[in-house]
Amino acid sequence: SKGFVEINYGDLEGKCIHNDDEESKRLKNLFDQSSRDMEKDLYARYPGGENANEVEKRAREALRKLMNDTPNDRHLVVVGHGRCNKILLASLLYNDASKISSIEQGNTAISIVDYDSGDDKWLEVMLNYCAHNEDRGAASGGAY
User: Fold this and answer.
1) Confidence at residue 58, expressed as pLDDT on a 0 to 100 scale
2) Is residue 144 part of a domain?
3) pLDDT at 144 (0 to 100)
4) Which uninterrupted H or E stretch holds 92?
5) Measured by CB atoms within 10 angstroms of the end CB, which terminus of the chain is less buried, N or C?
């Protein structure tokens, strides 16, 4: 579902922020500042991109649709991207998407949550499982 695609980084989309040149440093600073702002304000956004509130709404709607479309299934797999995953998990587990900094999400991480329909609550089973990366000799990756 398009609801689980990565956040739109707007003007920063596809830009290199890891080189030592001045432009990369400027873009890295802009990225870092925008990321910090988003942790405090769900309506802060990457320049020309999405904000956490927009990502939360589209991801929760996609999850709701998936659950409604598969009412007899007990297990669902959602494959998404780092920041989108963090926003969705913070929204589900803490009812507060701005708590994204409390969610670790390594590269190819597996997170498992249970939905308790009686209490209408999402419960953490396992977050940020990355041992499968070590088995293949790959780095477990850092948090997004």
Assistant:
1) 97
2) no
3) 42
4) helix 82-94
5) N
DSSP tag of 100 = G
In sequence order, the 6+-apart residues with CB closer than 8 A to the CB of 131 are 140
Q: List all residues 6 or more positions away from 122 whose beta carbon is below 8 Å from its beta carbon.
A: 92, 93, 113, 114, 115, 116
Own/partner long-range contacts of 31-35 (Cβ < 8 Å, ≥24 apart): none
**Does residue 129 fall inside a structural domain?**
yes
For residue 12, pLDDT beyond 70: yes
* Phi, psi (degrees; rounded to nearest 5) at 113: -130, 150
Higher-pLDDT residue of 135, 116? 116
R_g over Cα of the chain: 16
Chain length of the chain: 144
- Residue 124 belongs to domain with CATH number: 3.40.50.1240
